[in-house]
Amino acid sequence: MNDRRSTSAMRITSHLCAVVVAAFFLYAAYGKIGSNNTRQFAVEIKNYKILPERYVNVPAIFMPWLEIVAAAALIFPRTRLAGAVLISAMLLVFIAAVGYSALYLGLDISCGCTGKDSGQAGWSTIGRNVALIVATLLSVWLFRHRFPIGNCQKCGYNLTSNVSGRCPECGNEQEQGEPLAASTSA
């Protein structure tokens, strides 16, 4: 019973982490969509002094839509891993950009994370992004947690002595290749 409760708590925590990260990315994207917001985001990208000025419009146009797609993928369990990869990659790029421009070059710039009036880029931005990466990885790791061998892989019910191949608790049939519970016949 405790295994099922802890697994249920892990799944709930996984979903909560996914929803929180996805909500932040949806909020961030919303502040960068629209002609005026896209122009402002392009200016904020230019201020980082990483890309040549003629290329800043490309990420300003596509980044918010990539954030929306990645957030949506993170919310749904079937696509959570893909969403987590996209979001983690974007966050690592953002951390590198802030580290280089704000910390290494010492530029006093807005992070541009949520569009206009995002706040100054610096250690707090990096800290927030690291926390988002941790929450993203937890959303995948906790969701993909497997039950011990001999337990139902859907609900965690102990299948010891069950020879039917079907969980009496949830009705889940063991997939081919999954170990069935040890039978007691000698």
Notable traits:
2 domains; 186 residues; disordered C terminus
What can you tell me about this protein's structure?
The protein has 186 residues and is an all-alpha fold. The protein has 2 domains: 142 residues, no CATH class; 40 residues, no CATH class. Helices cover 58% and strands 0% of the residues. α2 packs across α3 and α3 crosses α4. The chain is elongated, with a radius of gyration of 22 Å.
Give a brief outline of the structure:
The chain contains five helices and no strands. With 186 residues, the protein is mostly helical. 28% of the residues are buried.
The share of residues in helices is 55-70%
Low-confidence spans: 180-186
Q: Could you say how many structural domains there are in total? A: 2
Topology as a string of helices (H) and strands (E): HHHHH
**Shape field:** elongated
- End-to-end gap: 28 Å
* Overall radius of gyration: 22 Å
**Beta-strand level of the residues, as a percent range?**
under 5%
